[in-house]
Amino acid sequence: MSTAWTPGRVGFYALAALFGLLAVAPLAILLKVSLSGPEDVLVQHPPFWIWHPTTEHWAAVLKPEVIWPPLRKSLVVATGTAVLAVVIAAPAAYVIARLPRGWRYGVVLALLFTRMFPEVIIATPIAVTFLRAGLIDTDIGLILAHLIRNLPFVAWILVGTFEVIPRDLEEASWVDGNGRLGTLWSVVLPLALPGIAVAAIFAWLDSWNDLLYAIYLLLAERTLPLMTYYFANRGSVFDVATFSVVLTVPVLVLTLLLQQYIRAGTLGGAVKG
Amino acid sequence: MRAAPLPRYSRRRALGVGAGLLLVAACGGSAEDVLTPEADAGSLRVVMGLAESEWRVVREVVLAPFEQQTGVRVVPVQMEAADLVRQLDAQVQAGAVSIDLFTQDNNQLAPLVAKGLVEDLTPYADLIPAETPQALRPVLEFDGRLYFLPYRPNVQITYYLEPHFAQYGLTPPQTWDELLAVGRAFEAREKFGRVVIQGVPGGPVGVVVTEFLWQGGGDPLELTAPGSARAFEFLQQLEPYLSPVYQTAKFDTINTYLASETAYLGQNWPFGADVIVKQYRKQGVGAYSGWAGPAGEFHVLGGEVIGIPRGTPRREQALEFARFLMSRPVQEALVQRLAWPPMRDDAFGAVAEWQQPFFAAVQAALRQARARPNVVYWGEVERVLSDAFRDIVTNKQPVPPTLARYQAQIEQARAAAR
User: Fold this and answer.
1) If you classify domain B44-153+302-354 with CATH, what class do you get?
2) Is residue A118's pLDDT more than 90?
3) Quick check: B261 and A44 CB within 8 A?
4) A112 touches A153 (CB < 8 A)
């Protein structure tokens, strides 16, 4: 393989560096603000480096009574949403993927159709239904609310994943004596793992970042986005920056851990015949 | 094409990540963390929109003494004014009201009444202490019915950065002419506007424009009145000398603009003093009541009132808590600890030394404060004022025809409300 620095190669790395910088800069600024005193931020021309470092914003945020309840809530709800979304949507998506082309196309369009309603409009009737069911301030209430928008999306991703898995493999497994469920478990699901990982990440991130349903369905409890929203309204820029870093770190960790499963083409072919 | 199977260790790692997350999530839960409806069936849920420093004081001087006196547990809930309307709307529609009492920004009461989300408190009018100033009473009523109880009057004051005024030999503006002159002076010297007004559409513009309309002799419900046109003409004239950030300025961002010296003069609610001076450790911040227009100095009466959601199962306890909030000891404690102006004439208290200039400015502004029109279509009026502000002030459209167009929209809202 050639390692020569051709103009195309230089351009590629320059663009990659630029995009990397654009991606990292907001987080770097948040981190800087969260570790700075007012003298380094609230001036007409803020310095690039931190000259008045402080941990007081982090100390305030990392108090167990401040950070733990919303962190626990967000983790439980996001993980529950991702797991349930995959568990419910995967079998459905497998069946849809094995439908004749015309049917499959129609069902996939129907899945996407459910995502077309502005959430602000449907949030109130959904909240009314959930409140009637006594689901206020409960983890399961918020998980179910998040599933409303995540199930169609996860199913859509997984349809594309399952339909590119050759039927020949399943038939070979049947010949070897595996039943349908055995084939699904030992042949199809392992091959679908990259798509499942992508779907789970999307569902987890969507739930992790949700504010709308949290506002409706939580009173005495808060999620991390609700805490950030609260500090944005009532606190200082330092509180907001610190909480934003807290909100972002788990996303980075999860993405780094699971990115190995994300492969080109995983999302492709959702409606291919 | 055959999909390549993943190596076995990758599958194990994926399962491990998922299991780890679940474990972390599950281990974190405890019975105390989850406040189930059954667990707090006997307690009172009280919604307020406060900063953490304010919550600390309210817990100490309001909630704890009330719990001691009555044995009723109070669950405090933080919620912003706009979110309260959404939340209550859903709860009342569901017939599952779990908020028992709230304090709400008195400039955002109309939707609560228009949607039928609050109890009619007319039969409980005698709960209002006799020592409540008359000026505070109009905001409590809609169409002659009492829906709210007084709690905490408030008003915007003007903050300015003393070193920058001293640097250019300027004094804080007391009139429209002086405001324009100060704006011009800063812009001429620094090539950047340093005066800021709250220009975010909705509530912020609603308050700003209403104050200018009154100062000009106009009326937010009568935009074609000569005084209203005068106010918009002045704002149009002032706009080139405003800091460009005015379009994103509202109650929270304006604190940052002043603290970071992006702006040297701006109006905000008194909590801004706590943020700018205490949290941001800004020195040389002055405050005064504000400026006068041709018709005088006027301010929108803000603050919070007490409301009780329609259908709460704990109405009697909520009324008891409302009575407690309006009591003299509580009002005096709030003056002393938070420098909140009291809602009764007989509540006095010495505020902390650093708060004194800001408290004095608030007291002065309150003397010039009046309630915005108590109409159920006020939300629509705020939208109209915001649109007119955008067209006339930001986009420089001609004043009379633009105001005539928007006055027609106010008439429509008024007719619809009838």
Assistant:
1) alpha beta
2) no
3) yes
4) no
CB B139 within 8 A of CB B354: no
Residues B10-60: pLDDT tens digits?
Answer: 555 544 545 454 444 444 443 333 333 344 557 899 999 998 889 999 999
Do B157-300+377-417 and B44-153+302-354 have the same topology in CATH?
yes
* Mean pLDDT, rounded, for B344-362: 88
Separation of alpha carbons B400 and B226, rounded Å: 9
Q: Which CATH superfamily is domain B157-300+377-417 in?
A: Periplasmic binding protein-like II (3.40.190.10)
Taking the C-alpha atoms of residue A260 and residue B107, their distance in angstroms, rounded to an integer, is: 52
User: Side-chain half-sphere of B54: how many Cα atoms within 13 Å?
Assistant: 20
Search chain A and give the residue with CA nearest B45: A220
Q: Give the model confidence (pLDDT) of A123-158 as tens digits.
A: 889 999 999 999 988 999 999 999 999 999 999 999
Q: Calculate how close chain B gets to A165, using CA atoms only, in Å.
A: 6
Query: Which of A 9-68 lie inside 8 A of B, CB atoms?
Result: 38, 41-44, 46, 68
For residue A4, is pLDDT > 80?
no
Here the ipTM equals 0.77
Can you read off the two tokens belonging to residue B366?
A: 């309150």
Domain residue limits, chain B: 44-153+302-354, 157-300+377-417
Query: What local confidence, expressed as pLDDT, does residue B9 receive?
Result: 44
In chain A, what residues touch B39 (CB-CB under 8 Å)? none
